[in-house]
Design goal:
two-stranded antiparallel ribbon, 9 strands
C-alpha cells in the first residue's frame, strides 16, 4: 500500500502560456475532468457501471490587465486561437501541459473591486503530466 509522503497545499503555482509567464495575472487555476458514467443492467440482472473518457476544463480567475502585454488583452485579441498552457505545481510535483482555445474575458465588473474575470476553457484532449 502506498504511503502519502507529500500533503499538498496549493499555495502557489506557475502558469505559462506559450513562451510567456502569467503567474501574477491569474489565480485559482484548476484542471477539472468530467467523466461520463452510466450503469447498464446485463442479461443476468446485474448492474454494470461503465465510464467513458474524461473531457477536461481549465478554470480560474484572471486579472483584467488591458495593457499591451496583459493577459486579458492577449485573450481578447487572440480569441478563438489555440494556446499551450503549462500549469507548474510547486516543488517536484510536476507540470501539466495542455492546449485550449482562448476565449475573450469579461470586461469590467463590480465597482470599487478588483477587476477580475472568471474563465473556463475547454482542453483539447487530456493534460500531459511531466516531471518538473
Amino acid at each position: 500500500m502506498a504511503v502519502v509522503v507529500n500533503k499538498t497545499f496549493l499555495n502557489k503555482a506557475t502558469i505559462t502560456i506559450g513562451a510567456d509567464e502569467y503567474t501574477n495575472a491569474f489565480r485559482d487555476p484548476a484542471l477539472t475532468p468530467t467523466t461520463p458514467e452510466v450503469s447498464v443492467i446485463d442479461a443476468s440482472g446485474t448492474a454494470v457501471p461503465l465510464n467513458g473518457k474524461s473531457t477536461w476544463v481549465f478554470t480560474g480567475v484572471l486579472y483584467q490587465d488591458w495593457t499591451s502585454t496583459g493577459l486579458a488583452k492577449s485573450w481578447f485579441t487572440n480569441e478563438g486561437n489555440e494556446a499551450t498552457i503549462k500549469l507548474i505545481l510547486p516543488g517536484t510535483q510536476g507540470v501539466f501541459t495542455f492546449k485550449v482555445l482562448l476565449k475573450a474575458p469579461t470586461i469590467g465588473g463590480a465597482t470599487n473591486a478588483a477587476a477580475e474575470s472568471a474563465v473556463s476553457l475547454n482542453v483539447s484532449g487530456t493534460p500531459v503530466w511531466s516531471a518538473s
